[in-house]
Write a structure and sequence with these properties.
This protein has 332 residues and is of the alpha+beta class. It is 51% helix and 7% strand. It has a domain at 206-327. This is BTB domain-containing protein.
Amino acid sequence: MKLNAKLWQNVAKNYAKLLEEEETCDVSITVGSGDNVKTFNVHSLILRTQTPYFHTALSAQWRKKKGDKLCLSKPNVTPAIFEDILKYMYSSELKLEGKDVQHLLGLLSASDELILPVLSEHVQRYFALHQSSWIKEHPLEALNSAFQHESWKELQNCCVSTICTNPWMLFETPHFYHLDETILLSIIEKDELQMEESDIWYHILTWGIMQHTDLPDDLNDYTEEDFNKLKKTLSKFLPVIRFFNMSLEDFDTKVSPYRKIFPDELYEDILWHFLKPDRPKKYVSSILPKRHHPYANGNFFKTNYAKITAYRASLSKYATRPNGFKRVMIGP
């Protein structure tokens, strides 16, 4: 195996030299925009072989010719990123050390557009291993970036897993309420979300309320239409919040005031669960398990109280709540 790897390294070096031999190139690709533009002379045979994108772009139906070269333009890809992609396609070499977050995200976007799935997976793994601190410092930006492409599963899982381990880094940020429903749902569904169920309900309820600027400040002033708006907004969240794992006191003080947003059978199932847990459920086929978080263990909280308190305090400067936050009337 080592011998094969060494042989391939020699072959790859020879292919890389082709990038310097412009006299054999038959394609001219101009990338970038504004003052950041560069033209690369490359070989159609290599590009066609590496990705179906160029197989189509250089076909007779789509190609444009100027002189003796085929011409393409990619203004949405920077020269630095395209240079990395060319090195990868010619020699399978890619040096990511020292590249900043924006370069890595740009490389991922270009890999997706140019249909280079192996390159995309490699960059995602590198990002997950070497940019974990950036994800923690910019959780909203990290999530929005990871979920902009459906194929970035590894990066999405990394971001969600990081946030599940310490969800306060996300839920206490001032722009949490702008988070997309699909992204938020992917976090709430996780068994590993390390947050008490009543806290999860509090933040999801607030997120739902903040999607409607016209809701009254006082819950007593809600009309049927207001409750229906909130019910529709939170309809996908209610089945995945573990109400069955809440205490009766939490449910009574924090959830029951919003009874009207619940499907009747779900609310009935929850109430009966507190009275008779073994009673067959109507709305749910099975009860979701308790989340796998250390707060379920009282000893964890005792031994880590100072650390948890310090972390929450460090977030206080970011926890400026919108004015509408006072609408959440769910008990003390």
